[in-house]
Amino acid sequence: MEVCGVDAAEDRKKPKANENAASNGDNACAAGAAAADGNEGRCPIARAHTMYAQMSAASQFKCLKTLLDISSLQVLSQVHAAITPRLRLDFIGDLPTDLARNILRFCDARSLCNAAQVNRQWNKMAEDDVLWHRLCAQHINRKCASCGWGLPVLGPCRSKRTKLTWKTVYADRMLVEKSWRNGSYELTDMKGHKGAVLCLQFDSEKIVSGGADETMRVFCIRTGKCTKVFADHEDAVNCLQFDDKKVVSGTADGTVWIWNLDTGDMVRKLVGHTGSVTSLQFDEARLVSGSVDRTIRLWEFATGESHELCGHEDAVNSVRMHDNHVVSASDDGSVMLWDAETRQCVRVFKGHLSEVQSLGISHDVIVSGSLDNTIKFWNLNTGACFNTLFGHTDSISALWFNQLRLLSASQDETIKVWDRDSGQLVHTLRGHDSPVLCLAASDSRVVSGAEDGRICVWDFGSGSTQ
After folding, report:
1. For residue 409, how many C-alpha atoms fall within 13 Å in the half-sphere facing its CB?
2. CA 31, CA 36: separation in Å to the nearest integer?
3. Single pTM value for the model
4. Which residue in 314, 312, 283, 313 sits closest to 298, CA to CA?
């Protein structure tokens, strides 16, 4: 009986002991694996902890899934709050530098800028010059195969930033490209010619123009003031080109003039054409000129000698040099490709329905503009026309293009900006009140001359940080 009494007393003590254990709650069980061995018989959570730790990954997943399936929404919310921080891994900060950079090189510019705002370590990686140099190589003067964007070249020293990095190079060019796409520019005009502006060229400091008033004028591109006048021509100046030392001009009296750019003195006069000189272009050794007399002449600077290229059946309106070739456009409606050494016609491009007035050439692409109001793209090697642009309501008077865009000036008083690859019209520039006769452009500016004697400058880089 005593034994039974003792047993009964001990049984009565057990519920109280269990209540004490329960009152301690999770504190006893949360002691972890270290206390689990001593409490295996008393705490089921500790026993489960030990069993779970010994399971394979697959078994652990099945066990957790079973528990989650029978858990309340409140418990699931608590589990989510506990798990989320454990799943946040700093995959950039925890990786070796080279591996982290290799991941970030797949990011575009916007993603890199976002990554730079995460923390200091991410900022350091996202600002890496290697990454931004790669983006510049993908976009500058070409269209990126991934995003379809291209960036202008610009000059080497345009940025006013004290520290020039590849990121600032990219950012400056992106601002200019956005201006081109959005049609954002600053428009100024210059006056000085007393007749139509027939030709012009510019650089970062000056504009040199030729007009029907038989003069060439030099304008400061920033102030718009005329700083020099070449007034010795005997007829209208139809075409010109300048470099660091000289200006070469072609006139309606059939002569080609070579001038000292600094002093304004005439150095030499080239005589050979029997009709108005309509177009010219030169490199270090030679000059090519086209004329109303239906001929093209190749002039040697060293000797002054010229060689005649004959083949067009009407006036030659435009000539361009390309490697060892000459390209010409004529009133006979054709474009011709010539070998400069043999002076023979290599290929004839036919497709325009009227006189071809203007030309452009880059790599293996020729662009021509005509009185039929169209612009055509030609493959230089095959002679095939692979695109025709419609949009102007009058004849095309001048063309300019690079790897990203094409610009066309027209008698309809407008300048149109086209996407070079797709041929889509991007913008129409309106500022002239008379036919636009000549056009020159760079990656951030357009300069045009019109029949009323005005020169317009469209600056797409004015809103940038440059």
Report:
1. 28
2. 8
3. 0.77
4. 283
Alpha-carbon Rg of the chain, whole angstroms? 38
Residue 292 CA to residue 279 CA, distance in Å, equals 10
Distance of CA 34 to CAs 38, 52, 401, Å?
Answer: 8, 15, 77
Neighbour count for residue 178 (Cβ, 10 Å)? 15
∠ CA 318-437-155, nearest 5°, is 80
In order of 77, 183, 364, the CA distances from 416 in angstroms are 60, 11, 23
Phi and psi, residue 104, nearest 5°: -70, -20
Question: Please, which residues have CB within 8 angstroms of residue 195's CB and are 6 or more apart in sequence?
Answer: 211, 212, 213, 236, 453
- Residue 30 CA to residue 95 CA, distance in Å, equals 34
CA torsion sign for 48, 49, 50, 53 is positive
Classify residue 290 as exposed, middle or buried by CB count within 10 Å of its CB (0-12, 13-18, 19+).
buried
> How many Å apart are CA 94 and CA 320, to the nearest integer?
58
Beta strand pairing call for 197-202 and 266-271: unpaired
Q: Tell me the pLDDT of the chain (466 aa) as tens digits.
A: 333 333 433 444 443 444 443 344 344 344 444 444 444 445 788 888 888 899 999 999 999 999 999 999 999 999 999 988 888 777 787 888 888 888 898 999 999 999 999 888 899 889 999 999 999 998 888 888 778 788 888 765 444 555 788 999 999 999 999 999 999 999 999 999 999 999 999 999 999 999 999 999 999 999 999 999 999 999 999 999 999 999 999 999 999 999 999 999 999 999 999 999 999 999 999 999 999 999 999 999 988 899 999 999 999 999 999 989 999 999 999 999 999 999 999 999 999 999 999 999 988 999 999 999 999 999 999 999 999 999 999 999 999 999 999 999 999 999 999 999 999 999 999 999 999 999 999 999 999 999 999 999 999 987 543 3
287 phi/psi in degrees, rounded to 5: -130, 140
